[in-house]
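User: Sequence in, structure out. Go.
Assistant: Echoing your sequence, followed by the structure tokens.
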Amino acid sequence: MSIAPEKLKAIGTIDARFQSYNIEMVEVTGGRFWKPYPRTMRAFDERDRYSARSPIDLANARLRKLAAALAPAYLRVSGTWANATFFADTDDAPGKPPSGFDSVLSHQQWRGVIDFARAVDAEIVTSFAISPGSRDADGIWKTDQAQRLIDATRSLDGHIAAVEFMNEPTLAAANGAPPGYDAKAYGRDFRIFREWMQRAAPDTLIVGPGSIGDAPSPSESGITTRDLLAASGHGIDRFSYHHYNTLSPRCGGRDDPAQALSGQWLARTEATLAIYRALRDAFEPGKPIWLTETADAACGGNRWDKTFLDTFRYLDQHGRLARAGVQVVMHNTLAASDYGLLEETTFHPRPSYWGALLWHRLMGKTVLDANSVATPDLHIYAHCHPGMRGVVTVLAINASRHASSTLTLSYPGERYTLHATRLRSATLQLNGRTLAQSADDELPPLVPSAAAAGPIRLAPASITFLVFPAAANPACR
């Protein structure tokens, strides 16, 4: 197999904020979120899946520095808990939520979100409460809570770039909506929401529906995205959906980490996209697609999601979705539970954060066609470099646990190889050197090694970025 970076053709572009992240609403307000796994490997008790946590410290210098290193990005503040969160538009927030709500977002906490977004060059994406407390006596959604959030944001010189009406309407019955909520009720509420948005915040993108769980042949029960779109009519600016490869043990998942590098596991990203792209084409043709919530396993992540093993899925997902034309991917989360890019108490980088940082620095907006080089275990993606004209970056993921791959280069390049002594290690090496922040929280230099033209070896279970400064690719000028 060989790579000729100078000949790779452009096949599309992605949003400048393609690589983005979530900070869940419950992180901002504090509350019960996914409980950490026990230190032993004993089975997780699904009846005890949550634990209380304090609000995230969005003023933390380390958190801000690490988030800023991924800028520009979208910051989505939403999630299941947002569906029933009351916004208190004064600093004197009630100690308990009003009837019909489950939690309280204070004015001060929302100010913290705006200040954080401004400090790290992130654009805010959010959603609104749709629980019984946000409705009139007839159960129809009211705009007053949403209007207060819009007004408060403006008063703080902030801006909401995009909104989803609610989080995961396909799971409305379990996500805070009134009993019996169905696609017809969603369509009625969404039309109210859309008309109000056109008056209240015409410069804010309407994103939706933010669904999850649709299947190629849906069952008769539950709410489907097809029904939601049929009921709501046209009127979104971006088509959004959610995807997780699986459920964590907190919600009944029983997956074997041995499959986490398999072709079938990694291809789940494209299988889900195919379902939602078909729905986009049927109801909102031509609208850009955003994946507004994703990680390996829903319900806080699998035990291995904080290790190098999940970095393969993280980067492979980025490569597949960029190649397929998805414009934005929002990882859940930046810094909470096992799927966070950062450890939730210390904010120290996990392996996937280092993968994210390399992607940010090396993979630009123009996507190139390198698919012909890929094999079942070797996944190849290519983009123009984000900062140098004519320069090409190739991402080569060797997902085989035991076999090396050989890639022949037509040009000399710069090599960045991520590897770990154990796949389920939280410590990662770049070209053999351990990655870690310094004592004063500075990021380490990401120093490449030279890669001569000709064959290079890609070790088993390794991830390599190759930069070709002399490629002079016409698509990258």
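User: And one key feature?
Assistant: The first strand starts at residue 2 and ends at 3.
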